[in-house]
Design a protein that fits this description.
By secondary structure, this protein is mostly helical. The protein contains 14 helices and two strands. Strands 1-2 form a two-stranded antiparallel sheet. α2 (58-66) packs across α10. The two termini are 42 Å apart. One of its GO terms (cellular component) is endomembrane system.
Length: 445
């Protein structure tokens, strides 16, 4: 939807005006499905994002820089504030008599044209980096399988990244939109449980057999400050998608109450496995915890191979969630409707999605230490989208219904996370400068 500078909103495509539960709601045209999924399915979409293979790195990227008490408290607090911020966005989904099926639509409706464009830019940079990170994760999992059976080092990480990108493209061509994941969400959950259970069990075994571990925070005083800030940014990344309106667009009416059910499902059933594998990994290996936990554990080769293959396959599925806003924009822009497997529509997905993921794959192979850049994009996009905008949009939309104390609370959130965003950006830039001296393009990490 396009919006005017005054924020009233106008569309270059006609709006659907439907009557759901006796309430007239305007819905922008889209080539993807709207109001087709149960809250339970949407809950699994959210949970799939939380329990992706990224959880295998949280012991190293969150617990090691923070230590036991700040790390545990940080995860619990991040869970609570993320649930709160996401609930604010969810409650604005039908604000102003319109259903805002895209994050940029909501921002544009509240603030105007400039905010529409800025939000769109921030969101797509964030999602592009997440998608690229998923391809690196998938390539790392494949390389880990290869290393279990061969030590000739002939196959390098960039080769596995290229193979992962190809598999992700094949999957993207066969899944027309987010709602059609359905069965694949169950498959993804099985894969997640495999690598989480394997990492948990083998870490417990190693932890019991290991001597006393070192849980001190490594580095100089100066580096500890920056790594602590970076770990705080990773806490935010762990729980947030940056595309909540796009996910909520797929849910059946009533969209707000059903989305709240999905969020509660995500932040109860979804976070427990993440907590388990994060805490047990740090307990077992202390400050020596690898940033990819399955690289640290000791166990039967076939078990670790199974877990890494599961991580690879789950990553392929999870990437589709974070790429779906781009797919939706392109499909809608070029009028890709009708049967998803018609010659025209299938060839469009092959060319356009294949091209998009080719760019992702090239960037992933070129910069396999992309985690540094993801920290930067998280600072300049995830913080603003998830916390700053969420609180300010809610305050602006509900200003006549909020008490002075409630307004003060939201302003405190805006300023606090604004400062955190600036600090996290500085920390990420420092990390990029430091690591650029160590790594090179197309590195075999």
């Amino acid at each position: 939807m396009e919006v005017n500078g005054d924020g009233t909103g106008s569309s270059t495509r006609p709006l659907k005006v439907i009557d759901e539960e006796n309430i007239a709601v305007e819905i922008p045209e889209t080539a993807h499905q709207i109001s087709s999924d149960s809250w339970f399915q949407v809950g699994f979409v959210l949970t799939t994002g939380i329990n992706s293979a990224y959880v295998l790195g949280y012991s190293g990227t969150i617990m090691v820089p923070l230590g036991w008490i700040p790390g545990v408290l940080g995860l619990i607090i991040a869970t609570a504030i993320s649930l709160y911020a996401n609930s604010l966005i969810a409650k604005l989904h039908e604000f102003g008599g319109r259903r805002h099926i895209r994050y940029r639509d909501l921002a544009g409706f509240i603030y105007g044209r400039k905010a529409y464009s800025l939000t769109w830019g921030l969101q797509y940079v964030n999602l592009f980096m997440i998608n690229t990170g998923y391809i690196i994760l998938a390539g790392s999992a494949l390389k880990a399988v290869y290393a279990l059976f061969s030590d000739d080092h002939v196959m390098k990480l960039p080769y596995f990244i290229a193979l992962s990108g190809f598999v992700c493209a094949l999957f993207a061509m066969s899944i027309p939109h987010l709602s059609s994941l359905r069965l694949w969400l169950g498959v993804s959950t099985v894969f997640s449980l495999i690598y989480i259970v394997v990492a948990f069990v083998l870490s417990v075994k190693d932890g019991i057999e290991a001597p006393a571990r070192d849980y001190s925070i490594p580095g100089t005083t100066q580096s500890k400050i920056f790594t602590t800030i970076g770990a705080s940014a990773n806490l935010v990344f762990a729980f947030n998608t940056g595309m909540l309106p796009e996910i909520q667009a797929t849910i059946k009416q009533p969209v707000v109450s059903n989305m709240m059910k999905s969020l509660y499902f995500q932040f109860t059933a979804g976070v427990l496995p993440m907590y388990a594998v994060t805490f047990i990994g740090y307990w077992a290996y202390g400050s020596s915890t690898s940033t990819y936990l399955l690289s640290s554990v000791n166990g039967p080769v076939w078990v670790k191979a199974l877990a890494n293959i599961a991580a690879f396959l789950q990553t392929v599925i999870a990437l589709h969630i974070f790429a779906s806003p781009m797919y939706e924009y392109l499909d809608t822009r070029f009028g890709i409707t009708g049967s998803p497997f018609s010659i025209r529509n299938l060839s469009f997905r092959v060319g356009v999605r294949g091209g998009y993921l080719t760019i992702n794959t090239l960037v992933a192979a070129l910069l396999p230490f992309l985690g540094d850049f993801m920290s930067l994009t998280g600072a300049i996009s995830t913080f603003p989208l998830t916390f700053i905008l969420a609180n300010h949009m809610y305050m602006k939309a509900k200003k006549n219904k909020l008490t002075s104390l409630q307004k003060l609370w939201h302003w405190l959130n805006v300023y606090f996370f604004g400062l955190m965003s600036i600090a996290a950006a500085v920390s990420a830039l420092r990390l990029i400068a430091v690591d650029s001296k160590t790594y090179h393009v197309f590195a075999d990490l």
